[in-house]
From TrEMBL:
Belongs to the TRAFAC class TrmE-Era-EngA-EngB-Septin-like GTPase superfamily. EngA (Der) GTPase family. This is GTPase Der. GTPase that plays an essential role in the late steps of ribosome biogenesis. Residues 181-373 form the EngA-type G domain. Associates with the 50S ribosomal subunit. GTP 2 binds at residues 187-194, 239-243, 304-307. InterPro entries: G_ENGA, GTP-bd, GTPase_Der, KH_dom-like, KH_dom-like_a/b, P-loop_NTPase, Small_GTP-bd. GTP 1 binds at residues 12-19, 56-60, 122-125. Transmembrane segments: none annotated. One of its GO terms (molecular function) is hydrolase activity. The gene is der. The lineage of its organism: Bacteria, Pseudomonadati, Verrucomicrobiota, Opitutia, Puniceicoccales.
Length: 458
């Protein structure tokens, strides 16, 4: 995953040599536009030495017919974008042209901005051109770096300067794949949470151990589950005290707002939302599902007491259904409709009474672990988003449409995607939901919420 604090952007007016420099820095001779397209062709990005993201903003705002006025508007847009997206900005100028008005406009914007700017005078092809670069000191952005993108002069020095500005790469914040999957059982009173908990704990495939240091009020248990294929799956079940104590709480409102539910949710990677098969989805189930989603937790819906449905079916098959499987399918469909706001979570039909499908819960949670730590490759993510925009264009708001220049995953659990866009308010809620759903579908993130973080003009 790319650390967004390690982003370097190239800005400067057309023809100063930004794309040449881009290719020089990423060590590729040819233009790599097609290897890693941005959301629009406006922005070109690549990862350099597995260390930082390099952006060429040169295409932003550019049209086929460019007047000088349009060029200066585009240049300003590019600089604004770079200021938002990048931690280091390479401001490229052409030593042979000298300082132009547009350079001055750009320099003025950059001076006002506190981040790191490197002034790069390009096309210093020969030693005798070096002195000509002195003129650029008057832009007020420090000593110019003298380079020739074409011939490779001064590139090593430029790379060192970039490294200095970026600082050392932070040490592995990567999630530990072997860590325990933290799970909890949440649901209205009497849906069968304790019964499921006890069933799980009594499974012969489980080795259960107390987690040292947990208090009587918030007991956690480590569960080592031997999967049929020999793999050992490791879980940590939160709030078993709550399950055991079985305090009666009369009002459901009281239950939901309970500190206990919140705490269990906070300590979970995956929440099993238990509902009662006979009651179906109630308002309270929906409210709780909403809270789990807001907390950014992955969730699995567990429809418990399925034995009662099987019993009923055996005595009195429900009319209009061919068989129980057919009924289950339709049950699941209507459940999904009532939980439409969720990120298409897995749905399991279980019975704590008979033990039916109880262990599947652990298998499905384990499968989710990989999803939780998924890294969306930046190139693919941008392709997917580009396709989504082509399949359905956002509405025009004001005079223009919402547009994403570039997207990058910036976090996990919950998965976060940062969008560098034109104007934040142009993303309407309907289009946001469309993007969320489609990204969940495309990357098979079922049950895992996705958060968007928009960077652009307010
Ligand atoms: P951009 O519009 O800023 O991306 O500029 P380009 O990278 O497309 O370069 C514009 C023109 O300048 C091209 O014809 C390049 O070959 C040329 N150019 C780029 N860098 C240098 C350089 O260091 N020296 C010389 N002489 N020409 C260069
Ligand atoms: P909790 O309040 O969510 O922890 O629910 P409990 O585990 O205490 O269960 C509430 C009631 O539902 C008890 O009477 C259980 O025996 C019953 N129950 C739980 N699971 C099942 C099940 O799978 N099938 C049936 N028929 N009853 C169940």
């Amino acid at each position: 995953m790319i650390d967004p604090s390690r982003t370097v952007a190239l800005v400067g007016r057309p023809n100063v040599g930004k794309s040449r420099l881009f290719n020089r820095l990423c060590g590729k001779r040819m233009s790599i536009v097609h290897d890693m397209p941005g959301v629009t062709r406006d922005l070109i990005s690549t990862e350099v030495r597995d260390d930082y993201v390099l952006l060429d903003t040169g295409g932003i705002g550019m049209e086929i017919e460019m007047t000088s006025k349009k060029i200066s508007v585009a240049a300003e847009e590019q600089v604004e974008f770079a200021i938002q997206a990048a931690s280091v900005i390479l401001f490229v100028v052409d030593v042979r042209e000298g300082i132009t008005t547009l350079d001055e406009i750009v320099a003025q914007k950059l001076r006002r901005y506190g981040k790191h700017v490197l002034l790069v005078t390009n096309k210093v092809d020969l030693e005798e051109n070096e002195e000509a670069a002195d003129e650029f000191i008057s832009l007020g952005l420090g000593e110019p770096l003298r380079v020739s993108a074409e011939h490779g002069r001064g590139i090593a020095e430029l790379e060192t300067a970039i490294d200095e500005k970026l600082g050392p790469k932070p040490e592995g914040s990567e999630a530990d794949q072997s860590q325990r999957i933290r799970i909890s059982l949440l649901g209205r009173p009497n849906v069968g949470k304790s019964s499921i908990g006890n069933r799980l704990l009594n499974s012969t495939r489980l080795i259960v151990s107390d987690v040292p240091g947990t208090t009587r009020d918030s007991v956690e248990l480590d569960l080592d589950y031997k999967h049929k294929d020999g793999e050992l799956l490791k879980f940590r079940l939160a709030d078993t005290a709550g399950l055991r104590m079985k305090r009666k709480v009369d009002s459901p409102v009281e239950y939901f707002s309970s500190v206990r539910t919140q705490a269990a949710m906070e300590r979970s990677d995956v929440v099993f939302l238990v509902i009662d098969a006979v009651d179906g989805v109630t308002k309270q189930d929906q409210a709780l599902a909403g809270e789990i989603l807001d907390a950014g937790r992955a969730l699995i819906i567990v429809v418990n007491k399925w034995d009662l449905i099987i019993d009923r079916w055996t005595h009195d098959p429900i009319e209009g259904f061919k068989n129980l499987k057919h009924f289950l399918k339709s049950y699941e469909e209507s459940l999904r409709k009532e939980m439409f706001f969720l990120p298409n979570p897995p749905v399991l039909f279980v019975s704590a009474r008979t033990g039916f499908e109880i262990e599947s819960m652990l298998n499905v949670a384990a499968a989710m672990q990989a999803t939780l730590d998924m890294k969306l490759p930046t190139g693919k993510l941008n392709n997917v988003i580009q396709n989504l925009f082509e399949a359905r264009a956002p509405k025009i708001i004001g005079t223009k449409r919402f547009k994403v220049f570039y997207a990058v995953q910036t976090g996990s659990r919950p998965l976060r995607i940062r969008f560098f866009c034109n104007r934040i308010e142009r993303l309407d809620p309907g289009y946001r939901r469309y993007l969320e759903k489609a990204i969940i579908h495309e990357f098979r993130l079922n049950g895992c919420p996705v958060r968007f973080d928009l960077v652009g003009k307010e």
